[in-house]
Write a sequence for this structure.
């Protein structure tokens, strides 16, 4: 971990070299092995140049030339074990919880500081500072890459879960201007979660998290129409929902419920299960979902939970009640630039016929998101109001 920044630099240099070479020549028979070999050579050259490892350069040179070494690195079990060790290393208890999440999202998931700031409702400069402090602490202590055991596991699990879920959410509602959904990120989050389950098959919150992601992933096919436009939840074609993924979600949630432990992911998965099991939007059990959200708000201080509760309140008590709750949320600084708060307010003002106020909120929301799909959706609402 003390050479973390060197590893990042060499990976970027190697990928750039691969892009340049492969664009004008043939792709190697084993691209992954080529990348690993070149990256190792670059690291060795940098270390030799800096005179850190001159005494061991010959031994390292033999290691990076060994085909057996390269092949073993890319064995499926070895890759999975390495990813798992990196996950838990980034979530080491010497770091504050927020720094663990930032480091894992950067190192493990490849998020930019801007993407991390968006995912955490934070500021980009604060993310940069956390990253630097976390890397400095790892260099100072020279901590090993290992899968922990004992008392430190609970706090590390929380951080690992948070990272996986934020990675999934970035894919599900991408901050990328051109892609509302990035299935690759969602699938990577589910793969990482599966790695944790394979190692800890009876860890209930991890099973619940996997169930939650299955329920959400099941709706991919209905969220964007044939023209690339966003489809709001109540108008989604439920025949397009992936029933196999819903069944998997129910399986994981069932496994997670075998015991007394209750986590935030149990509650969120239960909410998603309610939506996925309803025959249509109108027959959704809104009161049950509101009870789950109420329990979740006790467990977790997150203004987005209250934003979601406001939407549910609209189904139970009408749009005026939801508007009152949404207006109260405007005072929470964490939602200051959160476009969904303003978009939701705009939508509810449309429901009660206050079109001028609605357009104002929808316009603000459009200015707060970089997603072309979401901007087009909000502008379409303004034009139709």
């Amino acid at each position: 971990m003390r050479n973390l920044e060197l590893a990042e630099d060499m990976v970027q240099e190697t990928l750039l070299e691969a892009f340049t070479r492969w664009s004008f020549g043939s792709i190697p028979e084993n691209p992954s092995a080529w990348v690993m070999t070149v990256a190792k050579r670059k690291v060795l050259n940098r270390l030799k140049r800096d005179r850190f490892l001159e005494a061991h350069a010959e031994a390292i040179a033999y290691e990076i030339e060994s085909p057996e070494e390269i092949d073993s690195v890319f064995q499926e079990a070895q890759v999975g074990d390495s990813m798992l060790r990196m996950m838990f290393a980034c979530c080491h208890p010497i770091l504050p919880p927020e720094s663990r999440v930032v480091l894992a999202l950067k190192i493990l998931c490849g998020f930019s500081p801007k993407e991390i700031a968006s995912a955490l409702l934070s500021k980009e400069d604060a993310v940069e500072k956390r990253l630097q402090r976390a890397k400095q602490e790892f260099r100072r202590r020279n901590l090993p890459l290992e899968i922990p055991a004992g008392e430190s596991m609970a706090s590390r699990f929380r951080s690992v879960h948070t990272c996986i879920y934020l990675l999934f959410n970035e894919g599900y509602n991408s901050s990328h201007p051109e892609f509302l959904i990035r299935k690759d990120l969602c699938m990577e989050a589910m793969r990482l979660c599966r790695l944790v389950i394979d190692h800890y098959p009876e860890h209930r919150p991890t099973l619940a998290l996997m169930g939650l992601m299955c329920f959400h992933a099941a709706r991919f096919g209905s969220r964007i129409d044939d023209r690339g436009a966003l489809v709001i939840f109540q108008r989604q074609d439920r025949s397009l929902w992936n029933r196999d993924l819903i069944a998997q979600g129910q399986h994981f949630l069932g496994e997670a419920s075998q015991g007394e432990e209750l986590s935030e992911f149990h509650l969120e998965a239960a909410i998603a299960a309610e939506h996925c099991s309803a025959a249509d939007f109108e027959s959704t059990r809104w009161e049950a979902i509101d009870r789950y959200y109420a329990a979740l708000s006790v467990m977790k201080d997150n203004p987005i939970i209250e934003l979601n509760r406001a939407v549910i309140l609209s189904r139970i008590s009408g749009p005026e009640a939801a508007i009152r709750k949404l207006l109260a949320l405007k005072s929470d600084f964490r939602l200051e630039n959160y476009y969904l708060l303003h978009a939701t307010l705009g939508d509810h003002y449309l429901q009660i016929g206050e079109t001028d106020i609605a357009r104002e909120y929808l316009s603000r929301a459009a200015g707060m998101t970089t997603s072309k799909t979401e901007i087009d959706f909000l502008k379409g609402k303004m034009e139709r109001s």
Q: What stands out?
A: Residues 4-24 form the longest helix (21 residues). The mean pLDDT is 86. Residues 370 and 376 are 11 Å apart (CA to CA).
